[in-house]
Amino acid sequence: MSLRLAIILPTLEERENLAPLIARIDAALAGIAWEAIVVDDDSADGTAEEARRIGRLDPRVRVIQRIGRRGLASAAIEGMCATAAPFVAVMDADHQHDPVLLPAMLAGVEGGHADVAVASRFAPGASTAGWHAPERERLSGLGNALVRLATGERLSDPLSGYFLLRSDLARALAPRLSGIGFKLLLDILASAAEPLRVREFPLAFAARRSGTSKLEPAILLDFLAGIYDRWLGRIIPTRFALFGTVGALGVGVHLAVLALLYPGMTNLFWQAQALATFVAMTGNFLLNNALTYRDRQLSGVRAMLAGWAGFCATCAVGALANVAVASLLEARGVYWLLAGAAGIVVGAVWNYALSSRFVWGRY
């Protein structure tokens, strides 16, 4: 029986969930030749080693252990490109996604009724009663509504992490995908040259079997990244757009701190300006580490202090580039406002390039 379906399981600390999930997949796909590819972001709990243990007993289970790379979307992309199966599904390993939907989803795409089959938490007939997390349900519903408003996507659950498509389509789209965040389905739909036919399957969304969720802080980022991918992705990298957004927030923080300190708390402007700069740079570093570069997120006191120092140093170099370019252009007759804007752009690009390379270790 030839291989028909690969199930990609991006994991981060899911050791206890793997064996029972593989058993559920095996029961759901009786009569269908399948394989499961566990793509693990070097989990501290030994998830990759557990996948190897299962694989020694069941060769249908393979593992990709990623060192120095993190992120659900990028893990799923690597897994989709690593299979010879003609069809590929992506699902969570925490048991919130029910494998019993896989045969129907496969039949829908294999029979030519859709290009992508999506398991939806909010389609007619779906249920979230087993989720037992009304606050997360409301947050996910709000995130989906915002994404539909911003992108025009009409799916009931465009942020679903459970979907199935042809492997050759996934490989063809892979070079265009940003690989950032958790919203891979939205990225796939936005990156296709022609609109993809999508069929939704109602999902009985369940509670996590073991461990804790890593997704709540990602909702806002998914929304922003979805907008950037749809409107700016062909012009500038999504990561740079997120970096710029954090920088814009930093300007607001800087001005707020400056207004708080001067002249109410100090009559020396330079002191207020220096402290405001320090607070804004620190805030920008923390936000970029948590959002823009969360697939390379720094952790631990030593790494965070070194990263913060490197980020401040790159910002200082960027500030010098900003001033130098703006001053040069203004001296050559360029209107001062345009010269200043050009300096800001050069400084931002410089900060992004240096911090990407020397603080978080990648572009």
Topology (elements, then pairings):
Elements: E1 5-11, H1 15-28, E2 34-40, H2 47-57, E3 61-65, H3 72-80, E4 87-90, H4 102-110, E5 116-120, E6 127-130, H5 134-151, E7 163-166, H6 167-173, H7 184-191, E8 198-202, E9 204-206, H8 218-231, H9 238-261, H10 269-292, H11 301-331, H12 336-358
Parallel strand pairs: 1-2, 1-4, 2-3, 5-8, 6-9
Antiparallel strand pairs: 4-7, 5-7
Helix pairs in contact: 1-2, 5-8, 8-9, 9-10, 10-11, 11-12
For the largest beta-sheet, the strand count, sense and barrel status come to: 7 strands, mixed
Q: Would you give the CATH topology of the largest domain?
A: Spore Coat Polysaccharide Biosynthesis Protein SpsA, Chain A
Summed up, the helix count is 12
Q: Rg from C-alpha positions?
A: 23 Å
CATH H-level superfamily title of the largest domain:
Spore Coat Polysaccharide Biosynthesis Protein SpsA, Chain A
